[in-house]
From TrEMBL:
Transmembrane intervals: none
GO-annotated molecular function: serine-type D-Ala-D-Ala carboxypeptidase activity
Family per similarity comment: Belongs to the peptidase S13 family.
The EC number(s) this enzyme carries: 3.4.16.4, 3.4.21.-
Signal sequence bounds: 1-29
Organism: Nonomuraea africana
Record carries keyword Signal: yes
Presence of the UniProt keyword Nucleotidyltransferase in the record: no
Protein name: D-alanyl-D-alanine carboxypeptidase/D-alanyl-D-alanine-endopeptidase (Penicillin-binding protein 4)
InterPro entries linked: Beta-lactam/transpept-like, Peptidase_S13
Cross-referenced SUPFAM superfamilies: beta-lactamase/transpeptidase-like
Keyword annotations: Carboxypeptidase, Hydrolase, Protease, Signal
Broadest EC class assigned to this enzyme: hydrolase
Amino acid sequence: MRRTPASLVAGALVVALAWASSPVSPAIAADPSPGVADLTQDLNQILSDSRLTIARAGVVVKSAATGEEIYSVDSGKLMTPASNAKLFTSAAAAEVLGLDYRFTTSALAAGRTAGSFLRGDLVLRGTGDPTMLATDYDALAAAVAAKGVKVVTGRLVTDDSWFDSVRLGQDWAWDDETAYYAAQISALTASPDRDYDAGTVIVSVAADGDKVKVTTTPETDHLKIVNNATVGASTDVLIERQHGTNTVLITGTVASPYSEWVAVDDPTRYAASLFRKALTAHGVKVLGPTVSGAPEGASELAKHESMPLSELLVPFMKLSNNMHAEILTKAMGRKVAGQGTWAAGLKATSDFAKANGVQILNLRDGSGLSRRDGVTAGSIAQLLLSVRSKPWFTTWYNALPVAGDADRFTGGTLRNRMRGTPAAGNVHAKTGSLTSVTSLSGYVTSAEGEPLVFSIMLNQYLSGSPKDIEDKIAVRLAKFSRTAPDTAAQLRSDGPAATEGGDLECSWRKPVHC
């Protein structure tokens, strides 16, 4: 049996008294007004869907203005949140790190310079920047060359000691090890494009005459490509890194171009390979090998700073980027406790949540990939209410996906959902998806202009994604009126809201970009 380190449990678990409100099924409206009673009846009807007969559902709706609980079903039951865990991680990061927080990546001289020679080692030091592109490593190399360095007599030393050496969440599924949405976490890493999927490479295939041509973005020798694919009448190709290696095996047939995002093994070495290649391109020759280390007393030659957290929140939350969540978790641990570890970072998140009234929270990672994460709908609603008073709230709120907005960096994982309904452009919420788990929590303005917070968590359903149930609830909340109740006929006439489908976050199912 796998043992759980006591320090991680102590850092990740916040359990106070049991949730005060008793679960009610079906929910009974406390407010006798016709509008609330009608809403309660409609939400109960929506949740009576046969797909939820053997499943678990936790739902809560509150007035953001007064904190009044308008609707609640099992809001105190512990549920698997999937990516709704990112609500806690992102809010804690905004509070602990601050919106002005930037990651730095530096090139340093561990030795003395004499003319065009650096007599010693060249150090590449990172603090976890998930936005580093090949072009950024190229700019860093160009800055080293601009200092007059042409020859490094020593080694290229990679210093990723800002974080610990634990690369994967201890509860993550083994078969996700090569998946780009579960990439290894390191203080030195690289992303292939401006979705900033740190620790990944885009592997592309295309028919080139009677052969299959393979390219990577960025160009890198960090991966070993074994191309067994053939040109065929249709594209039915598998691009997969072999577990525990950097060998990518390509099989199947290719007719039209196709790309796959692949997580690399050892992102530190991946970043170093990009930097060494860029150094060569700028006329800087490193005579020694690439090694790991954390030399002290090295002097800075060049530095790259990331965008501030206020901007990073957009790709992080809109596209539900798992690596951003884990990197920010370790960054919080480094700032609060001087330890770039999951344990320290999760304690920072839990302490923040507890200080803001959250009573039940058990986080094992920052992204929600772990099935041992446990959150209640009531805890999420409490967080959503509490952060409205924070000075960073507007920036954080705007980073949430917006229902029905087709732009990827506005609508995010909600861009194909609830279009043409009162929820479109209104609902700002975080999605969450794992197999047999879906969640949607955020903000909506009622038909009378009343701000509401809501959390919907559905667990352990067997077939047919119930995301349309989430959408129906959100649409009904957008139509909510205390004085002019909706009718069941109107509810039915809305029909099923558009959904993303599937068991993974929309943005996790690349390259489709659904």
